[in-house]
Amino acid sequence: MSTEHNGENVENPSEETFDLSSVDPSEIISGEEFDGEVTDEERLRSMRSNLDGFDLEDEDMKILDENGEFIGFTQPEAEALPVLAIVGRPNVGKSALVNRVLGRREAVVEDIPGVTRDRVSYPAEWNGKRFTVVDTGGWEPDARGIDASVAAQAEVAIDLCDAVLFVVDSRVGATSTDEHVMQLLRRTNKPVFLVANKVDDAIQEPEVAQLWSLGLGEPWAVSALHGRGVADLLDAVLKALPEESAVAKPKLAGPRRVALLGRPNVGKSSLLNKAAGEERVVVNDLAGTTRDPVDEQVEIAGRVWTFVDTAGIRRRVHLQQGADFYASLRTAAALEKAEVAVVLFDVTQPISDQDLRIVDLVLESGRALVLAFNKWDLLDDDRRRYLEREIETDLAHVSWAPRVNLSARTGRHLEKLVPAIETALDSWDTRIPTAKFNAFIAELVQEHPHPLRGGKQPRILFGTQVQNRPPTFVLFTTGFLDPGYRRFIQRRLRENYSFDGTPIVLNMRIREKRERR
Predict the structure, then answer these.
(1) Cβ–Cβ < 8 Å for 507, 473
(2) Which of 1, 311, 334, 365 is packed most tightly, with the most Cβ within 10 A?
(3) What is the pTM of this model?
(4) CA atoms 70, 73, 74, 78: torsion sign
């Protein structure tokens, strides 16, 4: 009979004391005393022998034989994939067409205009050829406010692409806005494919003929919703795309991925723009401006990173419907694809439950963590005292996370973000050899044995790190370890091996003595 328990991944609890007087440390680990002169390998063999006579399962033997899968990181070569931009006025189905090209629901789609605001790049493939497809916000002439910023991003996408899909609503026909876009496209001297969207059946095809008046050649009748005609369109597009982009910057396929998280309007998009050195995403005082995760490779302090700007995570009551709900799902998916999360706080506002929920989301995902306190240039002395007190109380459970004070608007202390991210990733990647880990456990239990509970005391038979990213350890024990004792082990692991910026997962496998026959 065997049971398995997962240790709680809770850090930095209140201090607990353990009674050392009633326990013989030599019985807790291996039945023999260590005098400090035993090597790590000898301790490993001694600890491994503790498992003799206990019932072990096939999964246990796999853990003991393989010592887990540890992932290294290598920087691949750069490549410049051809770029296909999808443009048009609002609500003609650009994002729906993007999803159809990708073969999955990636872009946020809703039946109202203005859902997409940034130019968002996605890797795509068709018939074995890889390229980048760029979704854009709706373009309108004489736009004001945030709509003007959206239109500007669409124009940038046209400049930085190799071919364009100009999407028009076939049911409405050519409008004055479509004619303005057509004039803009004619000046680019790039291949332009006129796409008549929302042609759901053959009966609607004659309506497409009126789009010849735009002077962009034969319209391609498609239905992004149902996929009708999209395959033929992509076959023609691939013939027009070059093997390598003439305008896109070569991008590395695998720089470390950094997700920028936080509640709405804390400055995530401003930070990405400052790091990129350009207006890469739309920034506006309107909370919730960003809806789709935006990837951008940036170079800070001589190192290239992939920063992912995400939608602000709102309170649950605001996530019941609409674009914000789907944006929240995309944010969670972006976090899963990232390696480290930079959680931004607005220092001019008190740390809220919403901020703490975002931190907990990162802990649950197992990603490395950096805390960035933004708008530091707006902080006065009175607010600073309150802020330090809030950090000590509300963020005590992640006191191990590197902290950076910066200003995304001015770029102040932006360079300090790099060493913080590197520290967190190094810890996230760390592997402790099995011999050293068992030596650590042996010394730990000698100094601080597990307290007696009901006259019984669980023994730690053996331990090993089964994976990194995040560091995950398994302890084979004869009984259940108290949550406080597991937190105590995690604290000592941090003291001995740093682990700054990464959560630690501590699991237990409770095993019983094999019955004598």
Answers:
(1) yes
(2) 311
(3) 0.68
(4) positive
Instruction: Locate CATH 3.40.50.300 in the chain.
Output: 80-240, 255-429
Residue 145 φ then ψ, to 5°: 60, -135
Distance CA 73, CA 222 (A): 42
Of 318 and 451, which is predicted with more confidence? Answer: 451
Each residue's pLDDT tens digit, 388-404:
999 999 999 999 999 99
**4 Cβ contact list (under 8 Å, min separation 6):** 507, 508, 509, 510
Dihedral angle of Cα 484, 490, 494, 496, to the nearest 10 degrees = 100
Cα separation, 362 vs 268, in Å, equals 16
Interval 178-210: pLDDT, tens: 888 888 888 888 899 999 999 988 888 888 888
| Cis ω before 470 (30° cut-off from 0) | yes
> Rounded CA gap, 418 and 406, in Å?
12
CATH 3.30.300.20 fits 2-70+431-511, yes or no: yes
- Nearest-angstrom CA–CA distance, 266 and 249: 29
CA dist 347 and 158 (Å) reads: 38
Is the CA virtual torsion 177, 99, 342, 426 positive or negative?
A: negative
Flag whether pLDDT at 22 surpasses 50: no
The two tokens of residue 452 are: 């007696």
User: Cβ distance 89 to 181 under 8 Å?
Assistant: yes
3-class state of residue 76 by DSSP: coil
CA-CA distances (angstroms) from residue 419 to 272, 275, 303, 347? 17, 15, 11, 21
Q: Which superfamily, per CATH, for 255-429?
A: P-loop containing nucleotide triphosphate hydrolases (3.40.50.300)
Beta bridge partners of 261: 343
Collapsing DSSP to helix, strand or coil, 406 comes out as: coil
Backbone angles phi, psi at 358, to 5 degrees: -65, -40
Token digits for 435?
């011999």
Short-list 355, 347, 358, CA closest to 412:
347
- In CATH terms, 80-240 corresponds, of 3.30.70.100, 3.40.50.300, 3.40.50.1360, 3.30.720.120, to 3.40.50.300
Give residue 21's identity as a one-letter amino acid code.
S
Q: How far is CA 393 from CA 60, 271, 374, 503, in A?
A: 40, 27, 19, 19
C-alpha separations of 322 from 88, 172, 276, 467 in Å = 22, 24, 30, 39
